[in-house]
Amino acid sequence: MNSDVLGLVNLQAEQDDLEALTFFRSGGSLPFMGRYRLIDFTLTNMSYSGIKTVGVFAGNKFRSLLDHLSRKEDFGFEGRNSRVFVLPPDWNDPSDISEGDLKHFHNHSDLFARFKGKHVLVAGSQFITNTNYKKAIAHHKAQNNDITFISERRPEYNIPSAPMLKLLTEGDEITGFTNDRENNHVYTDVYIIKKDVLLDIVRTCIDNYKPNLFHNGIREKLDEFRTGFYDIEATTYYFHSVQSYFKNSMSLLEKDRYRAFFHGENLVKTKISTNPPTLYKKDSDVKSSILANGVIVEGSIESSVISRNVTVKKGATVKNSVIFASCTIEPGAYVENVILDKGVTITEGRKLIGSEDKPYIVAKRSTI
């Protein structure tokens, strides 16, 4: 049990390069693989780590997040002593001089004041994995580190377009961060920090008009702390662009990868839905795809991810695409290498074709 560790999901600090996919939602609310949202993986990992109290810095686009996280029990936070707080920004504090994600720390300082534990596990939603942090937390405490960074060693993460940070180390300590493509020691945007150290950093940054906790308060002052790292033995997926979102979605359509990720150490938890099972009508044809509940299929679907309450009508074809909830593909329509946001209608006979490197995106509630 790690009830002395506060979980903090900091969505405000994330780099938003997901274009139209995050026009109406935060990155943590982004749907993934039919029935999940990216924040589900972060919350699941915290729940399985024995963390009982979680605060979510929701950023400015928090409406869908409030709905999705309305029942903490869906994510494994059960019982009177478990709490999940969704914390929007406070725009009405006349004394507030803070900027960036530090505004959230200032506005919601009572979260830390009321929490009696001594440690905070800080994570985002752009790196997702299926693991728990029990061993990492134990390592952090045993080493008496001020900050322990969670990392992964994966040579295949040498992706030129990915703005990810790698760790520079000497022995067990962190000496810095780098974007060097040859470095395979990937920082997963998760760290464990002593609560008192965190609050000191927040105060110093605000007093000096700094906008970013990690970059201004930790990365630039790294030599002032006792630091360490802990390598997790789990596969992570990184979402830094529309291309990476599409690539990760298509990658997990492979059976072995899907089973290894979703049926691994933890059962990934999400908001419970009461939709009916998928209905496959006569002449429907579905291959190598993932379909959520509530889908009605009369047409053809191949190598695609289909979210809840989607209708693919007779003669319509969906190929190599990601379809968000409540979309309708009318008869004779054809979509390939496309991402349809929630509530989109593709009218009869229309053809939309993108590419694997640049999928065609249709904005939320559009009709084409």
Automatic annotation (TrEMBL):
Lineage: Bacteria, Bacillati, Bacillota, Bacilli, Bacillales
Gene Ontology molecular function, alphabetical: glucose-1-phosphate adenylyltransferase activity
Name under which the protein is recorded: Glucose-1-phosphate adenylyltransferase
Domain Glucose-1-phosphate adenylyltransferase/Bifunctional protein GlmU-like C-terminal hexapeptide intervals: 283-354
Family membership noted in the UniProt record: Belongs to the bacterial/plant glucose-1-phosphate adenylyltransferase family.
GO BP, sorted A to Z: glycogen biosynthetic process
InterPro entries, per the entry: ADP-Glc_PPase, GlgDAde_trans, GlmU/GlgC-like_hexapep, NTP_transferase_dom, Nucleotide-diphossugar_trans, Trimer_LpxA-like_sf
Keywords: Glycogen biosynthesis, Nucleotidyltransferase, Transferase
Residues of the Nucleotidyl transferase domain: 21-150
